[in-house]
C-alpha cells in the first residue's frame, strides 16, 4: 500500500548570520526497517544533495565546494531519519527547505514505486553587525620563574581573516609596551626584538589553536620582569575595511626564593648510646613544592664545634644519593626518607661521634630545568644540637695515703688499686711524681701504660737510663704497680696514679671516666756512716770559649774497702736539675746529656776529688752545677746500701768575649749608629762652644 509520509523539522528556523542550521527529514511508514528509500534535499526548489538507498551522499556541483570546506554536511542517521546541516549559515542560506523520499524495491534500483515530498519549512538567516569581541586570559595567572607562560586570546564575531599582535608591559615599568609576537592574516609569525633570542626564554610559539583562539606560549619565564600586563590586539579585514579589538590580562611571576623556608626539628635532643634519633627537615614555600625539582643536603658539625659544617649526604631530585667524605661512619647507619615537603634523616646505633649540631639545606630549580644547573633558590634551616650520653663509668680507685721507705740503690714498689670497674672496659694507667723540692711544684709524668700495655714515658724520663729503672706493671686485673729499680735519693717524692676507663663503642674507643689514687710517699733511710762534701757556695765567671773547673771535694775519711761513684747535675734553678754524667765505681763514664759529651771531662786524680772540667764555655752553659758522691761498700759479689753526699751548687756565669760583644753590637743597628756618630756629635758641640766664647 501507499503509506509513505515525509516531513521536515528544524532545530531553529530563525538564525543569525554564522549560526548552524540543522534539518531532519523524517520518513514515516510501516515496517520501515525492511524497506529502501532514497532522499533528496531541496533549497528553494533546487536540489542540493542526494542520499541513495545505500547511504551514499552525492552533492550538486554548486554545493560541492562548500561541502568540501566543511560548511555543509548531509548523512543518513537511520532508515527513516536523514540529517542536513549548514555550518556558519549566511544570508544566502535563507529560504524554503524540503526533502523528497522515494521508495525502491531493492537497493540500487533506479525505479521507485512511490515518492513522498515533505511540506516546505521556511528558514530565515538574519544579518549581524560586524563587531569583534575578545576574551584574553592566562592559563596560570601566577607563575614561578622558569615556568611556561601560556596566554589565550579568543576572538569572536570575526567572519574574515584576523591578524593578532601580543604586547607586554613589565610590572612597575612606566615605559611603552613591548611587542612580543605577531601573526598575520596568512598565518606568518614574527617576534619582537626582545624575544628573538631562544637561549633566554626558549622558542616562543604563537599558534591558532582553534577557529577563534590564538595561543602565545613563552616556554620559560626569565625573571619577575616577565610578569605584568599583556595585551592581545586582533584585527579583522574584509572588503578593504578593518575592525580592531584589544583585550588584556595580568600575570604575576614570582622568584622561587620567595617564601622558601626550611625548619629542622627533632623529637629528642639527648640520645643514649646505641639508640636512634630522627631529624625532620620541613620545607615551606609560596608555591607547590611537588611541581619543582628539589634537593636536600644534610650538614653536621661535630662536638666540640669546628670552623665549619661537614656535608653528610645530598639527596637530588632524581633520587640519587651522594655521601660526603668527611664523616663516612654515617653511611652505614643512616636512613633517608622523602615526601613532597619534608625530608627526614634517621641515625641508628648512636655513637659518641654522632654528637654535634645538624642542619639541612634545601635547593630548588626551575620547572623542567634539565640538566640541573645552578639552583634557582636555596634555603638553610636552623641548627639542632644532639647530645649523646655514653654509658656511665663504674671506676673507683683506692684513695688512701701510704708511704714506702727504701735504701739508696735498693728497689721500691708503689701500688695502685682499682676498687671497681665495668666488666667489659679496659684500663690505662699514668704514674705521676710530686717532687719534694717545692710545695707548689707541678706533677711530673713518669710513664703512661695504655690499655694495650704500651708504655709512654714523660719528657723528664725520656733517657733510656731512667726508663730502665721505672717500670709500670699490671700485677692483676685490679692492681697496677710502679717499680723503681736501684732507687736514688732524687727519686724521692709523692707518687700517685691516674686510671682511665675505656670502652669500645660501635666504631671506636671512648673514655668513660678516670680515677685518681691517693699519694704514696717514697722515702729513703741512710746508714750511720755518711760522706761529707764541701758545703760552700761558689759563684765563678768564665769568658766564652775558655775552660773552667768545677770542684767536688770529699771531706773526712772513708773506709778503704769502699768504692765511690759521682754524678754531676746542671740546671737554671735548684728545682729543675738534670743529670749530666755519672762516673761509676769501675771508672767508666756515662754521659746523660749526649750533646755535651765532648765538653764535659770529669777528674778523679785522688780518691776524694771528683771535679768537673767544662771546656769551651758557652752562653748556654751558664747555670747551677752540683755533684753527688755515693759510697758503695763491697761485700763479696753484692753491693749493700750505699752512703751518699750532696755538694752545694756552684753558680757559673758566662762572660762574652770582645769579638762576641762586637758581633752583638753590629747585629744591633741602633747601638752601632750610636757608637759611630757619637764622636762626631761631640766635636760639633765643642766647636759651637768655642765660637760662642
List its salient traits.
transmembrane, 693 residues, seven-stranded mixed β-sheet, mainly beta, immunoglobulin domain, Immunoglobulin-like, Ig_V-set, Ig-like_dom_sf, 55 strands, 6 domains, transmembrane helix
Task: Note down, in words, how this protein is organized.
The protein is mostly beta strands and 693 residues long. The chain folds into six domains: 5-126, Immunoglobulins (Immunoglobulin-like), CATH 2.60.40; 133-254, Immunoglobulin-like (Sandwich); 262-389, Sandwich (Immunoglobulin-like), CATH 2.60.40.10; 396-524, Immunoglobulins (Immunoglobulin-like, Sandwich), CATH 2.60.40; 532-655, Immunoglobulins (Immunoglobulin-like, Sandwich), CATH 2.60.40.10; 665-692. It is 7% helix and 48% strand. It has five helices and 55 strands. Strands 2, 4, 5, 6, 9, 10 and 11 form a seven-stranded mixed beta sheet that branches. Strands 23, 25, 26, 27, 30, 31 and 32 form a seven-stranded mixed beta sheet that branches. The longest helix is centred in the C-terminal third of the chain and has 24 residues, at 669-692. The chain starts with a strand and ends with a helix. The model has no long low-confidence stretch (mean pLDDT 85).
The span between the termini is 173 Å
Beta-strand segment tally: 55
Basic shape: elongated
User: How many structurally independent domains?
Assistant: 6
Secondary structure class reads mainly beta
Multimeric state: single chain
Taking Cα atoms only, what radius of gyration do you get, to the nearest Å?
Answer: 56 Å
| Relevant CATH superfamily of the largest domain | Immunoglobulins
